[in-house]
Write a structure and sequence with these properties.
Bound molecules: protoporphyrin IX containing FE
Protein name: Cytochrome P450 sterol C22-desaturase
Oligomer: single chain
CATH class of the largest domain: Mainly Alpha
Organism: Pluteus cervinus
Strand content: 5-15%
Radius of gyration: 27 Å
CATH architecture of the largest domain: Orthogonal Bundle
Structural class: alpha+beta
Strand order of the largest sheet: 1-2-8-5-3
Shape: globular
Number of helices: 19
Distance between the termini: 84 Å
């Protein structure tokens, strides 16, 4: 198909230095700005833009080399549209395209790793790659926060060692009673609402609220008043919503990041106060009743070796980081726990049978950490539920230098490199029928699931592996155990129940609609 450039030449401008047109380029009339300097400027600009666009494509192709991924990147924005509305189908397509694949978003070159080998390699190569929070997360967490400042190297290792003391078995024992009390309080509320309106209701927000209440009480005990806990919970949704891969970079009033920063300010105010009150309470010689108090007590122990002088703000920032790291992931794990059990009555029956056995018919008595550990089947349910629907499917890292990830591919320095967990957790060799919810696979010590612990990447791996993983597992199991003791739940399956909504972590698109009735014990 040909077209006559000359037909348009009257509209085209030419460089002023020549009387003859050098190019007959079809330029629409609205761009026709006449001859002279303006025309030179226009052509220079156009040439520059075309040059830059060509350069952008060349750089992308040079970095991508033989990796699967689009041959050309969309100018400037790349795959921005996909990152705004991520879907599991889109992610799976990307992961299935290769163990390593490439994309570009706003000229950030991204290498996605989908195999267990490469994902683990990234997580375990601190000399080449470090976690990189999305831009909004950095603004929300504050630049002087340990997560940001001590992200890598010895600083991170030392700081993290100092925080491990908050998750010892002794410390978990202190939190356990608080967690159970809060779960009972909230589940009783769920039942009271269901008694008035027996129709099914989504648990998405009520489960998030229970989780926030649990975290605040475990971290701060009674040092945060009820109204403040409610306010933090209400405002926290703004933080969750701001955690998109790419966000408007400046936190102008009204933007999502601005709203998230306002929410953080409210939370930080109360957390600082809680830190100061915890110090005062421990100065009286009282026994620790929450994480902050336990922390203060350990710091004052003469045998403690490590940084002791934490200001209220530093303590509050750590607690805020824990809230940040746990609120979405834990809520996701919890909600899918309810959904998976409801969708598998035969598995629910086994959980109930185990509860009867371990509790010895004593449904009202509080559980202990030891009794929870005896609930082997329930713990397998929790493990399996998060394998099928991992709350966190991937974590962004950044290549701090050229990273020779294979013999024939080196991730260019400063690229984003993203280990993904989904394929590891759905590897049919390790988890036969990977989509099926089968807690039994965890009961066979010699079975492939238990023999390949390196595939279980729900909590990551390497130096940044989740610090709260035992606490998280314990909490999800405890809430489910408490729920089983108090209620029956039926899942209203809608066309969206098995669709996944990605809001920082994974949630069922319909919010998991449950119909609740009290469980009576004979
Ligand atoms: C089901 C719940 C949870 C899931 C699925 C989860 C998952 C993860 C994952 C995948 C990572 C990144 C690991 C890596 O880069 O290798 C992580 C890091 C982290 N998590 Fe969790 N997490 C959960 C709950 C919690 C809780 C309850 C807390 C605190 C109380 C917590 C605190 C952290 C912190 C502080 C980090 C950063 C660790 C570091 O950089 O050293 N998480 N988590």
């Amino acid at each position: 198909m040909g077209f006559n450039l000359k037909d348009y030449s009257s509209a085209a401008s030419v460089p002023s230095s020549t009387s003859q047109p050098l190019y007959n380029i079809p330029i629409p009339s609205f761009l026709s700005i006449g001859q002279g300097k303006n025309a030179t400027w226009l052509f220079t600009t156009l040439a520059l833009v075309v040059g830059l666009l060509a350069l952008e494509q060349s750089v992308y192709r040079y970095k991508k080399r033989h990796l699967p991924g689009a041959t050309w990147t969309i100018p400037v924005i790349g795959k921005f549209a996909d990152s705004m509305k991520p879907t599991m189908t889109g992610y799976k397509k990307q992961w299935d395209s290769g163990a390593l694949s490439a994309i570009s978003v706003f000229n950030i070159f991204i290498v996605m790793a989908s195999s267990n080998e490469f994902s683990r390699k990234i997580l375990n190569s601190p000399t080449y790659a470090e976690p990189c929070l999305v831009h909004s997360a950095k603004q929300i967490l504050m630049s002087d926060n340990w997560l940001v400042v001590f992200l890598t190297g010895k600083g991170h290792v030392d700081y993290r060692r100092g925080l491990n003391i908050l998750f010892t078995k002794k410390a978990l024992g202190i939190y356990f009673g608080i967690q159970e009390q809060i779960a009972r309080k909230h589940l009783a509320r769920w039942l009271a609402v269901a008694a008035k309106d027996p129709s099914s209701q989504p648990i998405m927000m009520t489960a998030r609220h229970m989780n926030m209440d649990t975290s605040l009480r475990v971290f701060c005990g009674n040092h945060i008043p009820e109204h403040a806990a409610l306010e933090i919970n209400d405002k926290y949704w703004a933080i969750t919503q701001s955690l998109e891969l790419v966000n408007f970079p400046l936190a102008f009033p009204g933007t999502k990041v601005w709203k998230a920063c306002q929410a953080r300010k409210v939370a930080m105010y109360w957390l600082e106060l809680a830190a100061s009150r915890s110090k005062a309470a421990m100065a009286t010689g009282a026994e620790p009743e929450c994480m902050l108090e336990q922390w203060v007590r350990i710091l004052s122990d003469p045998s403690y070796k490590g940084k002791r002088d934490f200001s209220d703000r530093e303590m509050a920032m750590v607690v805020f980081s824990f809230l940040f790291a746990s609120q979405d992931a834990m809520s996701s794990g919890l909600i899918y726990g309810f959904q998976h059990l409801a969708d598998h009555p035969e598995i629910m029956a086994k959980v109930v049978e185990e509860q009867e056995r371990v509790r010895q018919g004593n449904w009202e008595s509080p559980l202990t950490l030891e009794t929870l550990e005896q609930m082997t089947y329930l713990n397998a349910v929790v493990r399996e539920s998060m394998r099928v629907k991992p709350p966190v499917t991937m974590v962004p890292y950044r290549a701090t230098k050229a990273f020779p990830i294979t013999d024939n591919y080196t991730v260019p320095a400063n690229s984003m490199v993203i280990p993904s967990f989904f394929n590891s957790l759905h590897d049919p060799e390790v988890y036969p029928e990977p989509e099926a919810f089968k807690p039994e696979r965890w009961l066979d010590a010699q079975g492939p699931a238990n023999q390949n612990p390196k595939n279980y990447l729900v909590f990551g791996a390497g130096p940044h592996r989740c610090i709260g993983l035992e606490y998280a597992n314990m909490n999800i199991a405890l809430v489910l155990a408490t729920a089983v003791s108090m209620m029956r739940w039926e899942h209203e399956i809608t066309p969206l129940s098995n669709e996944v909504e990605i809001i920082a972590t994974l949630f069922p698109k319909d919010g998991c609609r449950l119909k609740l009735t009290p469980r009576t014990h004979t």
